[in-house]
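Table S2 (text version). Query chain:
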Amino acid sequence: MKEEKIEVKKDGMLYPKYIVPPSHCGTVKIHFYLDNNHQKSHKYEINNFNYVKKELGLIRKGTYTLALEAERKRGGCNKGKLNSWGGAVNLHILPKNSGLKPPLLRG
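Corresponding structure-token output:
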């Protein structure tokens, strides 16, 4: 599990965006955690520079720990176990009443 402290400066809808590096070669399921509470999971096929962006719900101003965990799924180079994984995370916080929804998956 990889985790990072985040500072939320205003209330809003939290959308973390996990960006897949070109070195990924198999299918994984990404689990999102906020302060050690499981929020959402998403399984996706890996291709170079894909990303997954999930709405985690309303978040209040404050400091939190955001964590991501990868679960291996058979396919691609994952023949029996997940040896390593990585990527980058960008955080997006939209106003509660914006009515805007970013895409959940792009490939």
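Notes on Table S2: Confidence is low (pLDDT under 50) at residues 102-107. The domain at 2-106 is CATH 2.60.120.260 (Jelly Rolls).
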